[in-house]
Amino acid sequence: MAGINGFVIWRGIFKLRQSRGDLVDKSWDESKKMWGIAGPAILTAVSQFSIGFVTVAFIGHLGDLELAAVSVVQNVIEGFVYGVMLGMGSALETLCGQAVGAGQFNMLGIYMQRSWIITGVTALILIPFYIFASPILKLLHQSKDISELAGRYSIWVIPQLFAYAVNFPIQKFLQSQSRVWVMTIISMVTLVIHVLLNWVLVTKLGYGLGGAAIAGNISWWLIILAQIIYVVSGYFPDAWTGFSVLAFQNLYGFVKLSLASAIMLCLELWYFTAIILLVGGLKNPEIAVDAISICMNLQLWALMVAIGFNAAISVRVSNELGAGHPKAAKFSLVVAVSTSILFGILFTAAILASRDQFPKLFTSKPIVMKETSKLGYFLAATIFINSIQPVLHGVAVGAGWQFQVALINIVCYYVFGLPVGAILGYKVKLGVEGIWSGMLVGCLLQTVILLVVMLRTNWQKEALQAEDRIRAWGGESPQIT
To answer: Where are the bilayer-spanning segments (predicted)?
Structure first.
């Protein structure tokens, strides 16, 4: 009897070790798939974001007014426009990702062309926000000097608006097929060119804001042209078969999904824009805007890592749901969140360790450096929360939950976050720290709600919905396993 009991115990231990070994192997395989997308996506996001980052760094040494003007354009006007354009292009993340999972490559080029039509029309509609940036900013109670200078700069960067219209659909087309390394190389080479252009036009030739705008326009269109050449050069024989009139069919349904994506992302990005506007209403707005803009730029730079995982998890979830593998989609979520949290901890520690030093990268004004340093703890907390949040958004896009997340954003950000920030900043007189505290409340609440939603998700049902979506947009769906 003792021998039998011992055998049962050892067999149980062996099975436990075997299951742990299987879990480790499975996690390793998923991590490799995740990093295959996230790694180059992170480098691409950092490189493209750094175009604006470099611009701010060069302009910051011209003066406080110039820095504030460019920061307001980037965070308010371009932040608004970027959110709309990215959102309108993000419908491809759901459709292309699930189509790839189902093996329906023939529709990818058509989807991208439909998205180009939609984002191109959207860009035309958004031009007035650039042309009338100055009165818009004044209407939003920004200072007269900042608004007028920002208005001139915004007109000069209109070509970048149409670059966004072409760029985002191409990115989703490439990401859905895990073909991102060429896009990464293009972005990194362009970033080097952008630094040289700013050095020549802004520093050496002294063209100021105009030179910075020209450098940005050239850099963005270099990215676009290189990506288009890659797509049409025969590397995608199944996914790209040339331009087709089919791109003009089913536009209504495509617009609906694009609008849902745009609303979700815009509510997210406009939240940070609203924070800049609240800060602009404080005393000494130039100093306050400079300080929070520097922190926002660093936060967004750190956010690029999480955005890489956002892209990766969106592709993995959409591919697995499209292929009819709900359990694999759920496991991808766990691996992505765990990895992104680890990087969030590292970035948070880095900010806390260097909070008295990083302001020097952007400004030589002691008062701006002092105010920026005060926000170090708030910046660190925000970076940690944002190591989780974008990954959850990626899951939402991969599964097609854009509308539901938009509702969550409204409640967390605009019902709680902004009012709390306004009360703490103005009524309680905590200034920038109070406004940022309100932002943190909204971000934390949203993250908790999304985690709860995903823990309660029926992934089998999501796979069935993906099957219906694929069938509606053309093609057969695989069996769900």
So the answer is: 35-60, 80-103, 115-133, 153-170, 182-201, 207-232, 261-282, 294-313, 333-354, 375-395, 401-424, 436-455
114 pLDDT more than 90: no
Domain that holds residue 185: 28-249
Judge whether 387 and 306 are in contact, CB under 8 Å.
yes
Which pair of structure tokens corresponds to residue 435? 């406004």
Tokens of 67: 């820095």
Q: 445 in a domain, yes or no? A: yes
Contacts (Cβ under 8 Å, ≥6 apart) of 77? 129, 130, 133, 136, 137, 150, 154
Residue 66's pLDDT band, with cuts at 50, 70 and 90, is confident
User: Whole-angstrom Cα distance, residue 95 to residue 77?
Assistant: 29
Spatial separation of the C-alpha atoms in residues 346 and 131, rounded to whole Å: 41
- The one-letter code for the residue type at 275 is I
Would you place residue 477 in the very low, low, confident or very high pLDDT band (cuts 50, 70, 90)? very low
Considering the chain, what is the average pLDDT of its residues? 80
Query: Looking at the predicted structure, is the pLDDT value of residue 475 above 50?
Result: no
Burial of residue 455 (number of CB atoms within 10 Å: 0-12, 13-18, 19+): exposed
Q: Does one domain contain both 160 and 287?
A: no
Q: Quick check: 59 and 210 in contact, CB under 8 A?
A: no
Q: What share of the chain is helix, strand, coil (3-state, %, to 5)?
A: 85, 0, 15
Residue 249 confidence class, pLDDT cut points 50, 70, 90: confident
Return the residue matching tokens 């993250």.
Answer: 447
pTM reported for the whole predicted model: 0.74
Backbone angles phi, psi at 337, to 5 degrees: -65, -45
Whether residues 217 and 269 fall in one domain: no
